[in-house]
TrEMBL record, chain A:
Keywords: ATP-binding, Cell membrane, Membrane, Nucleotide-binding, Transport
Gene3D superfamilies: P-loop containing nucleotide triphosphate hydrolases (3.40.50.300)
Name of the protein this chain belongs to: ABC transporter ATP-binding protein
Keyword Transport applies: yes
Pfam families from the UniProt entry: ABC_tran, oligo_HPY
Domain ABC transporter: 7-246, 272-514
Gene source species: Umezawaea endophytica
Cross-referenced NCBIfam families: PRK10419.1 (NF007739)
C-alpha cells in the first residue's frame, strides 16, 4: 500500500527575468494516511511552493523535477482532466482565508458548494458549516461580512467539502488574534482527527505547528534541514536554523527568554502619561468608543508593552499619545505638561516621541535611498549640524555598519530586518526620548525578530531610550518589556510588571489570552 | 440604502441644475447674433431687427432672460427654435429616436466586442491575439470619426447608403422599412463602434490582469475548476466591476460623440440637430440639446452607481 503523499526528489525552479531561481531542491517526504506533518520555515524558504506543487498549482513560470505521488499516482505527469478530478476530491487546501482566498463578490455558501457540485455529490453546506461551528445562516454572507476567524472556518469547511484524504493548510492562522487562532486550530485538529485526514500544515511559527502536528519538518533555502517527531524537534533541535526558529518565539514564563535584567531600570521619572484618555469615532452607526478611559504611564528609559487583540483600541491609544488624534476626553502629558495643540508645538513634540511602524516595506518610500529616508526627518525638523554625519550616526546606532555603504541603497535591495533598522535609524536621527513601536517585528522573519528586539534593548541601555511597544504577542512582551498593560475592548484591564501580569494574572481576560498562546511544550 | 439612493438622486438634480445655468450663459458667449440668423437672406432694416429682438426678449437684461428661460423649463417649455420655428421639445422628441437606435445598437456591440476582446487578451497575456487585438483597437481609437466615416463610405462604394435614414422609395410596411433603416445604419454604427470599443477592451483587459494573480483564483483552480470556469465564475465577475462604471459613464458621452458621426452620415438624430443648432447659432435649440445631452450623462452616472451597488456586495454594505 502506497503512502498518502510521497515526495521523491522534488525540485522547483522559477524562470525569472534574472535567470532561474531554485525555490525547492531535492525534497523527500512521506506522509501516511491520517498523519499530521508540520512544515516550518521563514518566508522564501520554499514551504509554500512545496505545498502548491502537491496539486500542481504553481504559476506557469515554475519547472518541477522529481515526483509527487498522491496515493501512488504522480501528480507531475498527470493529464489535465485527471488532475482536475484529483484536485479537492483527493487533496484540498486551506488557504490563508482571512486574507484574499475567498471570492469577494460571491456568497460563501456558493463557494463551499462549488467543488461539491463539480465533483458530484449532494451539497451539504449547512452540515459543513455546523462542523466548523458556524450557524447555517452564514452561508448567505459575503466574505467581507465575516470576521477573520469566521472566514478561516469557511475555508476549512470548504476544504472538507469533498471528503479529501489529505488537507494542506498554508499558514491557516497567520493574521488571526491568539484567542481566535486557538479556536481555529482547535476546529481544524478536531476535524482532521475525527475524519482520519492526513494534514500538512505550513507555518513560520513553530509553536503553532507543535500544538497541532505529530511530525515536524524544517525548511531552509529550499531544503528540508531537519525532520522528526514534533516533540523531539522542539525539545532538542539539532540544526542551528531550527534552534534559531525556536528561539524566535519566546515562551512566556521561561527565564531563558527573558532578556531584561530584573533591576535594569533603577530610577525612572514619568515621561509620557495618559489620564482618563478617551477616543470616540463618529461612524454611520453612531459614536463608537475605541478607547474608554485609559490611564497609562511610561517612565524614562522604560519599555512598556501594550498588549491586546485587534480592535482592542491599542493602536488608537498610540495615535492619541503621539498627538495624531485628539482625545475626546482626558489628557496626555509629556514631562508633566499637556501635549501642545499648535502644529509647531506638535512638531517639536514629535521630535521627542518617534513612531516605528509594523511593516518597514510600506513605511519606506521605495524610491528614496536609505540616506534620503533617514535625512527626511532631519530636514523637516531643521536639525542643525552636518546632515551626513547625523545620518551616519543614526545608521550606526541602528547597527547598519559601515553606515556610508548604506547611503545610496534603495529599500528593495535590503532584507526585511535591515529595512526595519532603517526605519528605526530614521527615528533615532532626531534624538527622541521615546519610541512608539506598533508591532515592530510582526512582519519580520523569525530569525531577525530577536536581533531587532535586542537592538531596542541596547538602545535603552546606551541612550536611555524609552519605548512603548504595541503588540498582540505575549511572548514578545515577556522577552523585552519592563511593564505590561493589557487592553481589551478599549479598557486597560490589567497593568503591572511583566512578572506580575504574565506569571500571575489577576484579570480573567489576561488568563484567557495566556491560555490561548500555542505552546511548544505539549 | 434608501438614503444612499436619495443622496445620489439629489446630486443628479443639482447636476442638471448646474447644466441649465451653464448652458444658458455659455451659449450667450458664442459670437453671432441670433436675430441675424433668423433674418438671413432677407431684406431687413435696423428697426425690424430691433423689433425681432424685443419680440424674443433679447433686448432685456440677461438675468431677466435667464429667469424667463428657467420658468419656461419648469413648465416643460424649452422655447422655440429660431431656425425651424417649431418648439424645441418637439424637435428633440422627433430626433431622440434615431439617436437612441444608432447609439444604443453601436454601444451594445462595442461593449460586447470590447469586453470579449479584453477578457481574451488578458487571459492569454502577450499572446499574438492579445497584441494584435490591442493594436487594432488603439488604431480605431486614434482615428478621427469623420475621417474614418468618409473613408468607409469611399471604400464600400454603393454597397451601403452613406446618408439619411431611409429611402423615400421604400414601401411602407414594417419589414421593408426596418430593413431599409438597418441598411442605412451599417456605416454610421461601424464608424461609431470602431472609434469607441478600444476603451472598453483596454479597461477590461487591465482590470482582469489585476485580478489574474488573486488568491481566490488559486482557490478556484485548486477546487478542480476548468480554466474557463475559473475565468467565467471567478475572475470576470470581479474584473467587471470597474468596467461597469466606465461603460455607463461612456454611454452618456457617446450620445455627444455621435455629433460627428451623425453629421457625416446626415443621420437625423440629436447629434445632427446639435450641429445645426451650433451653425446658427440657434440659441433655444442649442440650450435644449445641451440640457438633454448633459442630462443623459448625469442619468447614466447615477445608473452606474446604483448598478455597482447591486453588483458589488462590499459597496452594498457600507
Amino acid at each position: 500500500m502506497s503512502p498518502l503523499l510521497e515526495l521523491r526528489g522534488l525540485g522547483v525552479r522559477y524562470r525569472t527575468d534574472r535567470g532561474e531561481v531554485t525555490a525547492v531542491r531535492d525534497v523527500d517526504l512521506v506522509l501516511e494516511a491520517g498523519e499530521t506533518l508540520g512544515l516550518a520555515g521563514e518566508s522564501g524558504c520554499g514551504k509554500s511552493t512545496l505545498a502548491m506543487s502537491v496539486l500542481r498549482l504553481l504559476p506557469k513560470s515554475a519547472r518541477v523535477d522529481g515526483e509527487v505521488l498522491l496515493d501512488g499516482e504522480d501528480v507531475v505527469t498527470m493529464g489535465w482532466g485527471r488532475l482536475r478530478a484529483v484536485r479537492w476530491a483527493r487533496a484540498s487546501v486551506v488557504f490563508q482565508g482571512a486574507m484574499h482566498a475567498l471570492n469577494p463578490v460571491r456568497r460563501v455558501g456558493e463557494q463551499i458548494a462549488e467543488p461539491i457540485r463539480l465533483h458530484g455529490g449532494t451539497a451539504r453546506v449547512a452540515d459543513l458549516l455546523d462542523q466548523v461551528e458556524l450557524p447555517a445562516a452564514k452561508a448567505r454572507s459575503y466574505p467581507h461580512e465575516l470576521s477573520g476567524g469566521q472566514k478561516q472556518r469557511i475555508m476549512i469547511a470548504m476544504a472538507l467539502a469533498c471528503d479529501p484524504k489529505l488537507v494542506i493548510a498554508d499558514e491557516p492562522t497567520t493574521a488571526l488574534d491568539v484567542i481566535v487562532q486557538a479556536q481555529v486550530l482547535g476546529v481544524l485538529s478536531r476535524l482532521v482527527a475525527e475524519q482520519g485526514i492526513g494534514l500538512v500544515m505550513i507555518s513560520h511559527d513553530l509553536s503553532v505547528l507543535a500544538s497541532t502536528c505529530d511530525r515536524l519538518a524544517v525548511m531552509r533555502h529550499g531544503r528540508i534541514v531537519e525532520q522528526g517527531p514534533a516533540r523531539s524537534v522542539i525539545a532538542a533541535p539539532t540544526h542551528p536554523h531550527t534552534q534559531a526558529l525556536a528561539a524566535a518565539f519566546p515562551v512566556v514564563g521561561d527565564p531563558a527568554f527573558r532578556q531584561v535584567e530584573p533591576d535594569e531600570v533603577r530610577e525612572s521619572t514619568p515621561l509620557l502619561r495618559a489620564e482618563g484618555l478617551r477616543v470616540d469615532y463618529r461612524g454611520r452607526g453612531g459614536v463608537v468608543s475605541a478607547v474608554k478611559g485609559v490611564d497609562l504611564e511610561i517612565g524614562s528609559g522604560e519599555i512598556v508593552a501594550l498588549v491586546g487583540e485587534s480592535g482592542s483600541g491599542k493602536t488608537t491609544t498610540a495615535r492619541a499619545l503621539l498627538g495624531l488624534r485628539p482625545p475626546t476626553a482626558g489628557r496626555v502629558l509629556f514631562e508633566g505638561a499637556d501635549l501642545p495643540t499648535s502644529s509647531k508645538g506638535l512638531r517639536e513634540y514629535r521630535r521627542q516621541v518617534q513612531l516605528v511602524l509594523q511593516d518597514p516595506t510600506s513605511a519606506l518610500n521605495p524610491r528614496h535611498t536609505v540616506y534620503e529616508s533617514v535625512a527626511e526627518g532631519l530636514r523637516i525638523h531643521r536639525v542643525p549640524g552636518d546632515e551626513a554625519a547625523l545620518v551616519a550616526d543614526a545608521l550606526a546606532k541602528a547597527e547598519l555598519r559601515p553606515p556610508e555603504e548604506f547611503f545610496p541603497v534603495l529599500p528593495h535591495e535590503l532584507s526585511g530586518g535591515q529595512r526595519q533598522r532603517v526605519v528605526i535609524a530614521g527615528a533615532l536621527a532626531l534624538g527622541p526620548r521615546l519610541l512608539v513601536a506598533d508591532e515592530p517585528v510582526a512582519s519580520l522573519d523569525a530569525s531577525v525578530r530577536g536581533e531587532i528586539l535586542a537592538l531596542l534593548l541596547r538602545l535603552r541601555r546606551e541612550l536611555g531610550l524609552a519605548a512603548l511597544i504595541i503588540t498582540h504577542d505575549l511572548g514578545l512582551a515577556w522577552s523585552i518589556a519592563d511593564r505590561v498593560a493589557v487592553m481589551h475592548e478599549g479598557v486597560l484591564v490589567e497593568q503591572g510588571t511583566v512578572e506580575q501580569v504574565l506569571l500571575d494574572p489577576s484579570h480573567e481576560y489576561t488568563r484567557r489570552l495566556l491560555a490561548a498562546v500555542p505552546s511548544t511544550t505539549p | 440604502m434608501l438614503r444612499h439612493v436619495a443622496g445620489k438622486l439629489g446630486g443628479a438634480v443639482a447636476g442638471v441644475a448646474a447644466v441649465v445655468v451653464l448652458g444658458f450663459f455659455l451659449f450667450r458667449m458664442i459670437p453671432g447674433d441670433p436675430t441675424v440668423t433668423m433674418t438671413r437672406g432677407r431684406q431687413v432694416d435696423e428697426a425690424q431687427i430691433a423689433e425681432l429682438r424685443a419680440l424674443h426678449g433679447y433686448d432685456r437684461p440677461i438675468v431677466e432672460q435667464f429667469g424667463k428661460y428657467v420658468g419656461g423649463l419648469l413648465r416643460g417649455d424649452m422655447g422655440t427654435s429660431l431656425f425651424y420655428r417649431r418648439t424645441v421639445a418637439e424637435l428633440i422628441g422627433e430626433r431622440v429616436g434615431p439617436t437612441l437606435l444608432l447609439v444604443g445598437t453601436s454601444t451594445l456591440i462595442a461593449v460586447t466586442l470590447g469586453l470579449w476582446l479584453g477578457i481574451r487578451g488578458a487571459w492569454r497575456r502577450d499572446s499574438l491575439f492579445d497584441r494584435t487585438s490591442t493594436g487594432v483597437a488603439l488604431l480605431g481609437w486614434a482615428m478621427p470619426a469623420f475621417w474614418l466615416g468618409m473613408l468607409l463610405s469611399m471604400v464600400t462604394g454603393d454597397l451601403f447608403p452613406s446618408g439619411g435614414m431611409r429611402f423615400s422609395s421604400t414601401p411602407p410596411g414594417f419589414w421593408p422599412q426596418a430593413l431599409d433603416v438597418a441598411h442605412h445604419m451599417v456605416l454610421p454604427s461601424l464608424t461609431l463602434i470602431a472609434v469607441v470599443y478600444a476603451q472598453y477592451q483596454l479597461v477590461m483587459r487591465s482590470s482582469l490582469l489585476e485580478e489574474m494573480n488573486a488568491d481566490y483564483l488559486t482557490t478556484a483552480r485548486a477546487k478542480g475548476l476548468r480554466d474557463d470556469q475559473v475565468r467565467r465564475r471567478h475572475a470576470v465577475p470581479n474584473a467587471l466591476l470597474p468596467t461597469v462604471t466606465l461603460v455607463f459613464l461612456h454611454i452618456g458621452l457617446v450620445v455627444t460623440g455621435a455629433i460627428t458621426v451623425e453629421t457625416v452620415y446626415s443621420w437625423p438624430g440629436l447629434g445632427l440637430l446639435t450641429y445645426e443648432a451650433l451653425a446658427g447659432p440657434d440659441l433655444p435649440l442649442l440650450q435644449g440639446t445641451f440640457v438633454v445631452l448633459a442630462g443623459s450623462v448625469i442619468v447614466m452616472n447615477v445608473l452606474a452607481d446604483l448598478l455597482y451597488q447591486v453588483l458589488d456586495p462590499r459597496v452594498r454594505a457600507s
